[in-house]
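Q&A log
Question type: sequence-to-structure
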Amino acid sequence: MRSVFCVLATGVSLIGCTTGADPIETGLDDSDSEQGARPPTADAGPDRTVAPLSAVSLDASASTDPDGVVEHWQWAFTTRPVGSRAELSDPTAASPFFPADLAGDFALTLVVTDDEGHESAVADELVVHSSPSEQKFWVQISWPEAADIDLHLLKADASIFDADGDVNWCNENPDWGTPSEPKDDPSFLADSAVGPGVEAISIQMPASGETYTIAAHYFGGCTGGCGPVTVSAQVFIDGQPTWFATSVLTAQHDVWKAASYSLEGGVTAVGTSSSDSTSGCN
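Response status: OK
Response body:
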């Protein structure tokens, strides 16, 4: 005699029977019999290198879900360069963007959620390297207070706002070095008239035999009295961070001569303070 085995669903409905020699035919496929949905996988894309001051577009379109669709995204910064004020255009969008407002590394994480509310088990990490690799010399400053701090790059013996020897917001691209050769000329690249702010100056290929002084000037831009401001300065040589320092400018007109640079000698800390009430280019 051949035995007959039947399968009941919830104890009342007949799903399928077998004589013992044949498999049970239930009408259910393999996916229906799996216990629990599998979580989605977040994919923030590969690490990349961008130019400072550029807009960086992110892309989570490679994120996947094995048994559904990805419906929600959550991006977040984990690290930013010191002084960066960069924010995501929309941290819940699949493809947001942010400004690489300083040279340095921006690290982010991405978590995704599928149409059934399941969240990715592991956040995917992405590092965006903001590197001035096409510039031999790059200097940037940043400050967190609501004040106007100006970055200056001075030739030897030049003073603040000296039109012939100081690159700044009102003398953005003077012809230094070999006449009519743009590669050895400094370029003022970013100006923040109201803090918190960042400013930057670069030289693609500094002239040999020249020494430049990096200075920060407390121009003003504050209401209700100008209090102390903490300024951070950083130098990159060939795209690599080379020197970093901070100083507190205590009052309007303070000048911090932070460091000097030459093609032959690199960066040398100076760290002197003075006062200068000049308010524009001569």
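Response note: Helices lie at 30-33.
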